[in-house]
Amino acid sequence: MSENIPIQRPLDQDFVQLARKQMLSFGIWPLKYLEGIDNKLYLAHSWFVAIAYHIMFLLQLLYVKTHSSASIYDIGHMMILVTMSFAVQTRLFGQLFNMKQYGSLFKEFFETLHLSNYPHHDEKSVKILHNCEKSAKFLFIAFAGLTGLGVVVFNVAPMILNYRSGAYQSGGETALETSLAFSLPFDYKHNIYNWAIVASIHAIVSYTVIGVIISQDCFLFYFILHILGHMEIMKEDFKSMLQKYKIREEEDEKQVGEKVLFVSQEEDHEVYDKLKRSVDHHIQLINFVVLIQDVYGLTLLSNYVFDVAGSCILLFELTQLTIESLLRYSLFLVGTFGQLYVNSVFIDQLVSVSDELRDVAYAIPWELLGRRSRFVLRMFLMRAEHPLRLTAFGVADVSVATMTQIIKTSFSYFTMLQTLE
């Protein structure tokens, strides 16, 4: 390990500290598995958040049922909320019912796969580590800032509409608008005090929804960044093998003048050790990607379902071209497409970097290697033929190609919705 460049512990990294605080507030930080704290109160808090949100989801469905005769734009607004609530519930309950595997994923990452734990650090690998951490921190702050602004605008838009319509001064004669829609046993559309309570709850729910999505997705990106970092280190190792080969020219004693290229036994032994280490390293990455797939597969599928359903309805809502619709849905749509883009591009890099790693390995002059080094290189190339990838619960690859298809499908459904207006 490099002694001149300080390397922080995985749990002390800036991104981890930021994400940990947010995830603790929602009860989705694997406290028991990462910190060895079996806190019953914290577990109760986790279940409280999930159950409370499930109750709100049911109240949303009941509201949709009792307001089925509303305008198509109002129904569209309700369906956006229902699809997003479904996606968030998938995350919350998927984690709670799969907590052991979820905790194992985080534990494996922080104890083994995090680049801070890499046992053969040099200046290049430390630089890769620092770049990963900077990228993760930037992504988290950028997403938190943009989505936080979106939450504020989404909840303020109905207040502006109420002010413009004079609902605050109407004494209950004009219905008050809210950001979310729940079926409740009391009137909050014509009572300013009830409305204030419900609006506050809506703001908390909105913050929780965005917080859960951002923290979980950013950790997925964090995992991907470190996997990509590991593959970059492996690429550098292969390149260094090529550079360190002392390919010499010697005259064969039996055939004077013929030049023979070879690698010394000492060099071949060094190459064998590096190749064997690379094979073990690659197997470790493959197993970790499988673990990510098991934990995040359903979440990725629910993301794609919302991207298709939510984006086409958001586009339709924007066709109203009112101040309220532009305020309420424009940032929402940007956030939806932004998440789709970042998810797809980040995860698709697993495939492209895997291909680059395979190509670099193919460039090694295998004909110069000893028998055992050739065997190990062949093992690596056989595994490298299948690039690392993630799927949306086995339904579709998470990739730029899938993203393009989703956008096309969303616009097709949007065109169909316009005919129903």
Briefly note the structural class of the backbone: mainly alpha
Which strands sit side by side, in order, in the main sheet?
A: 1-2
Q: Spans with pLDDT under 50 lasting ≥5 residues? A: 246-261
Work out the helicity level: over 70%
Helix count, DSSP H or I runs of 4 or more residues:
11
Q: What is the typical, i.e. mean, pLDDT?
A: 86
Number of strands: 2
Number of domains: 1
Order of helices and strands: HHHHHHHEEHHHH
Write structural notes for this entry.
This protein is mostly helical and 421 residues long. The chain has one domain (10-420). Helix content is 74%, strand content 2%. It has eleven helices and two strands, in the order αααααααββαααα. The chain has helices at residues 14-26, 31-35, 40-66, 72-96, 99-113, 123-165, 192-244, 265-318, 323-362, 371-384, 400-420, and strands at residues 248-251, 259-262. It has a two-stranded antiparallel ribbon. A hairpin with a 7-residue loop joins strand 1 and strand 2 (259-262). Helix 1 (14-26) runs antiparallel to helix 7 (192-244) and helix 5 (99-113) packs across helix 8. The chain is elongated. The N and C termini lie far apart (64 Å). The model is unreliable at 246-261 (pLDDT under 50). InterPro entries: 7tm6_olfct_rcpt. It is a multi-pass membrane protein. Keywords: Cell membrane, Membrane, Olfaction, Receptor, Sensory transduction, Transducer, Transmembrane, Transmembrane helix.
